[in-house]
């Protein structure tokens, strides 16, 4: 059985909801980075045992949250031993704006995976970009490197557009499927 872990930080709960959908699609374990940027020892153990790791973060000021950055820097201990070398990786980011410089934050997740010697899984979905497109459509934000999600700043966690949540589920399934093929 392929083991997938979703490690994420969520500032206001929106990114956690997305992580829940990604994890459901991947049948993955959720590992939350706390408000101080820490992961439990059990969380680190789960990440080491996983065949695939999916990173998730809100996009703040054009990059991942400082809590996620602290986690990323703490992973350097694993980098020194090549502990995540050849693992499968994916990632998702969330912001209040349609763009919000999410691509920059997503590339930082991809770069972290690459520094660890990982194999990155793209979103693998065509964009929903016709005039008839709706926010309920799959990949309505047109991502390709990974999952992009938009949560309006005045929306509750229950108001994340359904198309983004459906895309999150599909992305989790894709990462797990590819990890299963390669492990």
Which secondary structure elements does this structure contain, and how are they paired or packed?
Elements: E1 4-8, H1 14-26, E2 29-32, H2 41-49, E3 52-60, E4 63-64, H3 66-74, H4 76-81, E5 88-95, H5 102-115, E6 119-120, E7 147-150, H6 162-182
Parallel strand pairs: 1-2, 1-3, 3-5, 5-6, 5-7
Antiparallel strand pairs: 3-4
Helix pairs in contact: 1-6
Describe the structure.
This protein is an alpha/beta fold and 183 residues long. 39% of the residues lie in helices and 19% in strands. The protein has helices at residues 14-26, 41-49, 66-74, 76-81, 102-115, 162-182; strands at residues 4-8, 29-32, 52-60, 63-64, 88-95, 119-120, 147-150. The longest helix has 21 residues, at 162-182. The protein is globular, with a radius of gyration of 15 Å.
